[in-house]
Write a structure and sequence with these properties.
Elements (H helix, E strand, L loop, with lengths): L26 H25 L3 H24 L5 H26 L5 H26 L11 E3 L3 H8 L1 H7 L6 H19 L3 E3 L10 H20 L1 H27 L18 H5 L1
Catalytic activity: a CDP-1,2-diacyl-sn-glycerol + L-serine = a 1,2-diacyl-sn-glycero-3-phospho-L-serine + CMP + H(+)
Organism: Rhizobium mayense
InterPro entries: CDP-alcohol_PTase-I, CDP-diaglyc--ser_O-PTrfase, CDP-OH_P_trans, CDP-OH_P_trans_C, CDP-OH_PTrfase_TM_dom, CDP_ALCOHOL_P_TRANSF_CS
Length: about 290
């Protein structure tokens, strides 16, 4: 009896019917993507914990997600494991961890008392975070980057926005009663942070190669960092409130530094005569 299909030959004419062979992938290429997946899991878990009224754990989960999401790209570069797949995964994780998760945690904890206004504020923040991330991705893909891009962000970066927008929750943990009046103030604050995300405010990034620290200040700064982490572990919410306030107060300093260099109050263009942005979507539309 004849079989309906010819027998398989490992390297015969039927081998092509199997499709392309799957090649083995080095483990170092998987590690950054695993960190990204863990970040998404932490962000989504933070949302679940918020709906279960376990707010402190929810905030910790969101902050852990933001931390993991912030280091996966650096880990990929250190391990020389960058890939287009990882970049796409990271972008999808960013909108969850920096936009959706913080917005929902703040809404469940406080903004729901402001009814529709609270929900609108949460929506505005989540959309603003998405727009901020999209603008960052477009600017990162520019072939000719302006010299200031290594020193300044355009608007508050999304990871910092996630930390800032949770300020009403930190204050609630310190004993401030989540009243209706507090909810309306929280909604206004949430919209303010959303505006800072999509604004063209120059925010100092500290990533420039020209940013240097005097040798005699290295050890004191390292000691100060140790003290900060120790205080953060012992007085978490007090330190987070101080950190948010200090960050907000530092924004005018970055804008002032930009004004001294380029003579404008906001980033309106490339500020670099060697960069042509005539065909730049950011320059024309945003």
């Amino acid at each position: 009896m004849k079989t309906p299909f010819p027998p398989f030959e490992p390297h015969g004419p039927n081998d092509e019917a199997r499709g392309p062979r799957l090649r083995e992938i080095p483990m170092r290429l998987i590690v950054p993507n695993m960190i990204t997946v863990l970040a998404i899991c932490a962000g989504l878990t933070g949302i679940r914990l918020a709906f279960e009224n376990r707010y402190e754990l929810a905030v910790v989960a969101v902050l852990v997600a933001a931390f993991l999401d912030g280091i996966d790209g650096r880990v990929a570069r250190l391990m020389k494991a960058t890939s287009k797949f990882g970049a796409q995964m990271d972008s999808l994780a960013d909108i969850v961890n920096f936009g959706v998760a913080p917005a929902l945690v703040v809404y469940v904890f406080l903004l729901d008392q402001a009814r529709s206004l609270g929900w609108i504020a949460a929506l505005i923040y989540a959309i603003a975070a998405g727009l901020r991330l999209a603008r960052f991705n477009v600017m990162a893909e520019r072939e000719n980057k302006a010299s200031w891009q290594s020193e300044y962000f355009v608007g508050v970066p999304a990871p910092a926005g996630a930390m800032l927008v949770l300020l009403p929750v930190y204050l609630g943990f310190l004993g401030l009663t989540p009243s209706k009046t507090f909810a309306y103030w929280g909604a206004a604050y949430t919209v303010l942070i959303a505006f800072l995300l999509v604004s063209r405010l120059p925010v100092w990034s500290g990533k420039s190669e020209t940013s240097r620290i005097r040798r005699d200040l290295v050890l004191p700064i390292m000691l100060a960092l140790v003290v900060y982490v120790a205080l953060l572990m012992s007085y978490t919410w007090h330190v987070m409130v101080v950190t948010v306030v200090a960050y907000l107060l530092s924004l005018p300093l970055g804008a002032r530094s930009w004004t001294r260099k380029y003579g404008t109050y906001t980033i309106n263009g490339p500020a670099d005569p060697d960069v042509d942005d005539s065909n730049d979507d950011i320059g024309r539309h945003i």
